[in-house]
């Protein structure tokens, strides 16, 4: 454009220095401008190493790098003395550069190793052309196929397992001879004699002294028709028990009121249940029944031996399979061995029908218990002292010397009662107890005015029971508590203890107890 | 097991030992006691052969009581006491070299045994080498084991048939602590018998010590 002469315009930057403070005298203090190195540091901090290197930044990069290397030595010492990242702005720059150097070195090393082709080789990764480009439906189908193959394999294996298990069960049901023999051996004692297999079902190893051999034979059951269907309870193993242990037996203990004539004795007692002795009974049932028969025989043999040997005031009568004794006058206790072999027909025309409440199951059970206790005693250290140098006799008796036992204590340690005595005592007690209960109940129902209550104790002994009899007046139970009688029923006597401590012994007579209780009744009225 | 008291009954004047014993028996039977057999208490003396220093050797007494038929007691006078099995006698035979049996010093007490409810009374004659030395009476109250509790009862009972000869509480019980922790047992009985035997032994032999 035309005009006058060009005007020189001088451009001046504004005041670079900032005013730090203005003094009171108007003097301005300026912030000292950054020196060149400080400026450089500021710029270096603004470098972003994460971005790729561009040509623009090359120049910027090289300068701080040069400046950095020069500054490293003197400023490193400063750094190590007091490390404050804010003081040294080049710290982050240095770290980043150092890490990039490390990476470059590694890359260089890898490339040099690969170039030799001795320790490392480059192989192209097989590119899946369909990866990333395949549709999802295709992926689903391929997954399905692979899962199906895996499932097929597993199913095949499971089928094989289930087949083998089924076969095993089938085998077990078939029950061949050897598995049965194994089962038999796990429960009973067997031994092989020649080509026969014999077993022992007696109690001899448990301490019995009964002379019966108790041997049974194991035989193979070969009478099977393979054409026909195998029956359900077919067992390839069978046992043959001795002929005198066949059938089943039990010991009948009963208390009868009237004593029959001597002529009536000797009749075989009736059996309470007929024995079903099918030929196809499994061997364990047969063996158990035979063992039971043996035990009953032993009990009866022991009882009859004692009945004959032991002298008592009223002798016991042993006839055929019965032992009869008289615990109380007018009363008869009969112990009989009832053995039914199953061959004989039960004599139904006999007038003696088995009364269900005649048989005292408790006493039968007690007999079994006592004979087992006797067996155990035989095996105990009484017969075989432990250790072998120990003296014979009861273990507790060894203490008798050093503890200075007197005669009462010693005799209590040594049991001298036989099976028969014990069972007679128990029978006496049972009878006395039931009769006492009957007397008290009879009296209680007969007398209305003062009420008689009987509280029987739940805990009692085979030889002793107790009952508490209260005689109270209706409505005055709490006031008149004076008549409380404790009756201890023993084997032959009843001991009455009053509330104030007086004790009276009554005999087994029923009338005595009745009179006594009747005498207590008017006491209440006073 | 109960509390026992052993005492000596002096021979009645003008009567022999046997007659005094019979009088006692009669009194007991009148009381209502029941005779239940016989009893025997004996005591053997053993002297230790090993002499420690200048002290007189201690005497070991081995006693038997028919009340404890399977036991044997060995005691030193005033010292420790051992209750053992009857095999102890055999052991003493084996210890012959250490313990000499003073055979002439065996003391025995034999007599009858009476039972009166809870009491056991034994009246016996003490003999030493077949010469009668005195009469001993042992009263046992079976239910109790604490001497302090039943002493009065026993004393009263003894008064009923012994009359004036009732003894005081035996020294074995007086020395014991009270209560159930020190129950009376066989050792006390035998200690009392030993005291009685020693007393009776010294009676006839005047002056010299017992060997």
Looking at how many chains there are and whether they match, the oligomeric state comes to heterodimer
CATH topology of the largest domain in chain B: TATA-Binding Protein
Strand tally of chain A is: 15
The gross shape of chain A turns out to be elongated
Beta-strand percentage range of chain A: 15-25%
Low-confidence stretches of chain A: 56-64, 344-356
SSE order of chain A, one letter for each helix or strand? EEHHHHHEEEEEHEEEHHHEEEEEH
Structural domain tally of chain B? 2
Q: Give the % helix of chain A.
A: 40-55%
Distance between the termini of chain B: 33 Å
User: Ranges of chain B with pLDDT <50 over ≥5 residues?
Assistant: 206-211
List the chains of the largest interface with their residue counts.
Answer: A-B, 11 and 15 residues
Strand order of the largest sheet of chain B: 1-8-7-6-2-3-4-5
Radius of gyration of chain B: 18 Å
Number of helices of chain A: 10
Instruction: State the shape of chain B.
Output: globular
> What is the gyration radius of chain A calculated from CA atoms?
55 Å
Secondary-structure class of chain A: alpha+beta
Secondary-structure class of chain B:
alpha+beta
Family (chain A): Belongs to the Mediator complex subunit 17 family.
Subunit structure (chain A): Component of the Mediator complex.
Region (Disordered) (chain A): 47-83
InterPro entries (chain A): Mediator_Med17
Q: What's the helix and strand layout?
A:
The complex is a heterodimer of chains A (526) and B (211).
Chain A: E1 19-22, E2 28-30, H1 36-45, H2 55-81, H3 90-116, H4 136-174, H5 177-187, E3 189-193, E4 196-200, E5 215-220, E6 237-240, E7 248-256, H6 283-309, E8 317-319, E9 322-325, E10 332-340, H7 361-379, H8 407-413, H9 419-446, E11 450-456, E12 465-473, E13 484-489, E14 494-497, E15 503-506, H10 510-525
Chain B: E1 3-9, H1 17-31, E2 34-48, E3 59-65, E4 71-76, E5 81-85, H2 87-94, E6 99-116, E7 119-128, E8 131-141, H3 147-162, H4 171-174, H5 186-204
């Amino acid at each position: 454009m035309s005009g006058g002469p060009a005007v020189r315009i001088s451009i001046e930057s504004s005041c670079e220095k900032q005013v730090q403070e203005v003094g009171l005298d108007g003097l301005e203090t300026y912030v000292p401008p950054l020196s060149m190195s400080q400026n450089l540091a500021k710029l270096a901090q603004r470098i972003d190493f994460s971005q790729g290197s561009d040509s623009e930044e090359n120049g910027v990069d090289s300068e701080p790098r040069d400046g950095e290397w020069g500054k490293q030595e003197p400023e490193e010492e400063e750094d190590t003395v007091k490390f404050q990242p804010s003081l040294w702005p080049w710290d982050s720059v240095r770290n980043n550069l150092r890490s990039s150097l490390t990476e470059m070195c590694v890359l260089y090393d890898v490339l040099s190793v690969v170039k030799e082709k001795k320790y490392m080789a480059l192989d192209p990764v097989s590119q899946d052309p369909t990866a990333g480009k395949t549709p999802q439906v295709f992926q689903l189908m391929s997954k399905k196929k692979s899962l199906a193959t895996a499932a097929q394999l597993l199913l095949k294996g499971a089928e094989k397992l289930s087949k083998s298990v089924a076969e095993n069960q089938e085998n077990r049901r078939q029950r061949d001879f050897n598995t049965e023999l194994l089962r038999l051996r796990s429960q009973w004692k067997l031994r092989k004699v020649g080509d026969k297999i014999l077993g022992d079902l007696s109690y001899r190893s448990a301490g019995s002294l009964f002379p019966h051999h108790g041997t049974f034979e194991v035989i193979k059951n070969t009478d099977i028709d393979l054409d026909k269907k195998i029956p359900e309870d077919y067992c390839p193993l069978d046992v043959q028990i001795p002929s005198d242990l066949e059938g089943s037996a039990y010991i009948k203990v009963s208390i009868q009121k009237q004593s029959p004539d001597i002529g009536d004795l000797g009749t075989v007692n009736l059996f309470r249940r007929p024995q079903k002795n099918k030929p196809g009974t499994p061997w364990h049932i047969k063996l158990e029944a035979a063992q039971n028969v043996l035990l009953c025989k032993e009990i009866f043999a022991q009882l009859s031996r004692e009945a004959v040997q032991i002298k008592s005031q009223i002798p016991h009568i042993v006839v055929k399979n019965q032992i009869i004794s008289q615990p109380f006058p007018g009363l008869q206790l009969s112990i009989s061995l009832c053995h039914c072999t199953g061959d004989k027909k039960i004599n139904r025309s006999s007038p003696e029908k088995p009364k269900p409440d005649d048989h005292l199951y408790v006493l039968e059970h007690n007999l079994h218990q006592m004979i087992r206790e006797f067996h155990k005693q035989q095996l105990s250290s009484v017969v075989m002292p432990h250790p072998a140098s120990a003296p014979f006799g009861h273990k507790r008796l060894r203490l008798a010397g050093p503890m200075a036992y007197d005669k009462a204590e010693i005799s209590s340690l040594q049991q001298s009662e036989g099976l028969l005595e014990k069972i007679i005592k128990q029978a006496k007690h049972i009878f006395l107890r039931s009769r006492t209960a009957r007397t008290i109940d009879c009296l209680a129902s007969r007398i209305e005015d003062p009420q008689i209550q009987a509280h029987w104790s739940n805990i009692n002994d085979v030889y002793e029971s107790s009952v508490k009899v209260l005689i109270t007046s209706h409505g005055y139970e709490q006031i008149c508590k004076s008549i409380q009688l404790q009756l201890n029923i023993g084997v032959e006597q009843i001991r009455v203890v009053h509330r104030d401590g007086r004790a009276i012994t009554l005999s087994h007579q029923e009338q005595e107890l009745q009179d006594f209780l009747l005498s207590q009744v008017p006491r209440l009225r006073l | 097991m109960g509390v026992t008291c052993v005492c000596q009954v002096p021979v009645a004047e003008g009567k022999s030992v046997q007659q005094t014993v019979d009088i006692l028996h009669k009194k007991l039977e009148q009381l209502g006691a029941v005779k239940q057999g016989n009893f025997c208490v004996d005591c053997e003396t053993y002297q230790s052969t090993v002499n420690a220093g200048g002290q007189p050797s201690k005497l070991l007494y081995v006693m038997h009581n028919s009340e404890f038929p399977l036991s044997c007691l060995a005691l030193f006078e005033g010292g420790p006491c051992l209750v053992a099995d009857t095999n102890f006698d055999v052991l003493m035979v084996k210890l012959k070299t250490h313990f000499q049996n003073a055979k002439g010093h065996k003391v025995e007490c034999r007599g009858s045994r009476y039972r009166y409810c809870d009491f056991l009374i034994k009246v016996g004659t003490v003999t030493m080498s077949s010469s009668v030395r005195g009469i001993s009476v042992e009263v046992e109250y079976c239910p109790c084991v604490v001497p302090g509790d039943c002493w009065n009862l026993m004393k009263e009972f003894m008064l009923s048939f012994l009359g004036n000869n009732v003894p005081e509480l035996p020294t074995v019980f007086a020395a014991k602590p009270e209560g159930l922790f020190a129950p009376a047992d066989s050792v006390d009985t035998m200690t009392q018998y030993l005291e009685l035997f020693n007393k009776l032994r010294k009676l006839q032999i005047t002056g010299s010590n017992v060997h």
